[in-house]
Amino acid sequence: MRLPSLYGFYKYYFNYPLKGKKNYALAIREAEKQICDAFDLRDESCITDYEHQLYPRQLTISFLKRLYQLMNDHYDQPVFDLDYHRNSIHIPKELLNSRIQLDIDFGYFYDRNAEKIILLEYGKLNDVSHWIPVFKTLVTSFELTSMLPTNIETIGFWDLSKGLTYEESYNNGITAPIEQVLKIARKIVNERRRG
User: Fold this and answer.
1) Please, is 190 exposed, middle or buried when counting C-beta atoms within 10 Å of its C-beta (0-12, 13-18, 19+)?
2) CA atoms of 15 and 158, how far apart (whole Å)
3) Distance CA 102, CA 63 (A)
4) What is the pTM of this model?
5) What is the Cα–Cα distance from 64 to 32, expressed in whole angstroms?
6) Which of 11-20, 35-44, 100-109 has the lowest mean pLDDT?
7) I need a surface site. Which of 50, 136, 146, 191 has the fewest CB within 10 A?
8) Would you say which domain of life the source belongs to (predicted)?
9) How far is CA 105 from the centre of its chain?
């Protein structure tokens, strides 16, 4: 079973409303596709020219414009100063008491010079300090598709819905209890399998 984002896990962990807007989710998916293309090709025109495509989503355009502004506020040459990675956390079925493993996808920027990872968010930035312990438990307790950089000093969040940012030291943060993380993962698998 696959969750397309970390936020999908946080919704269960922190009891956020589970029903989301389909158009919002599609706009996020389309924005992240443009971001992947831009950083794979090292060409920011994938971000800046999206609005000129045949059927662009207005919400995706606003996400990409905020991203472009944030990148240029923080970096001289963002498509060269940052790396963008897609990754996935794999929670094995044995730990979930299930026949199904849970995979949680996420993307992040890595700033090699500042030893910083930047996660993209689309709202609720005021809650991210609570998300960091859960994120750290997920990425240190379970297998990842590819390893995170070992020298992370800072974790940052860029909110593409409002253009806000948040940063804190990655090393000072605590982790969430692994049993609570597994309890939520089991709940997700059981509820989604039923329904």
Assistant:
1) middle
2) 22
3) 28
4) 0.91
5) 9
6) 11-20
7) 146
8) Bacteria
9) 7
